[in-house]
Specification:
The protein has 79 residues and is mainly beta. Helices cover 6% and strands 58% of the residues. Strand 2 and strand 3 form a beta hairpin.
């Protein structure tokens, strides 16, 4: 498991997170950005990719999760 975070400036943070299977070729990787739109509003964007291992059967967890790869955007408003 790994996680890296880089603050580009006071309004933008980039994230990279992941989990690698040490025994097989499966992994999960997520690239994210947090943008401060204003003092009261933030936008979170994430791209999530899951790769299985073709040498494993359908019971292998990363093979089961491949269809859950996604892109999401969240808006957070604080008042």
């Amino acid at each position: 498991m790994y996680q890296f975070q880089k603050e580009i400036n006071t309004n933008i943070k980039l994230n990279l997170k992941g989990v690698n299977d040490l025994d097989n070729a499966g992994y999960l990787c997520e690239l994210g950005a947090i943008v401060n739109i204003s003092d009261d509003m933030k936008m979170h964007m994430y791209l999530n990719k899951i790769i299985g291992d073709d040498t494993q059967d359908e019971d292998y967890r990363f093979n089961q999760m491949e269809d859950f790869s996604h892109f999401r955007v969240e808006f957070i408003y604080s008042f």
